[in-house]
Amino acid sequence: MNSPFFIRDLGTQLTEHEKFELFHFILGCVDSIARSPEVMTNRSSFVPFGNFMFCSDDGAICIDDISAIVRMLHLTFASGSPSLCIDDHLEYESYVEKINLQFLNRSEEELCESNTYEAGVTFASQSISSGHEHMVTPVKDCLKTARRIGRTPNLQSARLAICLSKFAPLRAQIEWYKASCDKSDDQLGYYDSFKLRGPSKRDFKVVMNTIKLGEFWDSVIGMLENNQLPHDFHKRAKWVYASQSYKLLVEPLDIAEYYKNGDHRKNGHYLKGGRHTRYTIFDKWWQERERDRFGDTDGYSRRSKFASLTQDSCFWAKVEEAREWLENVRSERDPRRFAGLWAGIEKFENYAKGLVERKEVSIDVLARNSSYMVWVEELRVLKLHFQQFSNQIPGALDRKVVP
């Protein structure tokens, strides 16, 4: 909005006639939609999204209801003028600063008076209609249509807590499945047992549980994005820890399913082409929580035993990439590509060793036949092979990165 090459000088760059045409073109679009609400169901038409803030010198209102937004746009455009409309857009920052100061300077009595719904609507309509008395009633009617129907954010949050408890048995069944995999005689561990599973009722039930849990958490994120939950919901300890625990338990199964189905061949490795948005969102929730608690310092105490769940939920995705690097490095003849592959292998090797030494992995990682332990053994053999070859032909591998 404040580009020095365009917007700042928009008032002088456009002629009065061009301003008039631009303004009335936009007004015509908004007017047609405001008069025909059914048009908003057509995806090819203009449909606002997100939160819209309508400002004036006396205050502001924030609306997320589509119908109310369109009506408010129509009312503000219909009562404005081409020049004033452009000026108002350029003054957005100053309007926001004024609104913050006005809110902070309001007396306790004023805050109490505006705490009811009717008082709030009246105050907002008078603020946004300042200088246009004929707009007070239409704006007030518009705001009433935007009234949130259903539970308040706090009640919705309380309802979700009850729903979360109802999903606890599904989580418990997955935890039982993990425990049985860890104790299995085949020594595959949690991740590989699920990845190599056959058609069994037990495995099918785990798949259905992961789908149901994913749908629940997607609905939580959707409600938060639609302002149906408290603004600080994602910072509340109960939900941060619940989402983190869900991620650590279920994401390894999603990774196993991704590679079992061969999706990595079509979309690339999991971290680039397969990770669900919910997990990246939960990562942010957790990181923000940890920063608030510990700042930039490491707040973790040293573990005395292995974690119940591997603390990097993407660990197995990194193992899968490292397995491909190890496979490719065996046949790579280009020195530069060889060096790049080997650098990636060493980086992951050091990272995984660190997790194991700090006991931030679950015991399934160290199962004798797990993908990780198989990779470790293959790497050891490859290093030994390189070392023997280097001893037999001194200098033969000087151009490559050899351990």
TrEMBL record:
<dbReference type="InterPro" id="IPR041266">
    <property type="entry name" value="EDS1_EP"/>
</dbReference>
<protein>
    <recommendedName>
        <fullName>EDS1 EP domain-containing protein</fullName>
    </recommendedName>
</protein>
<feature type="domain" description="EDS1 EP">
    <location>
        <begin position="172"/>
        <end position="379"/>
    </location>
</feature>
<dbReference type="Pfam" id="PF18117">
    <property type="entry name" value="EDS1_EP"/>
</dbReference>
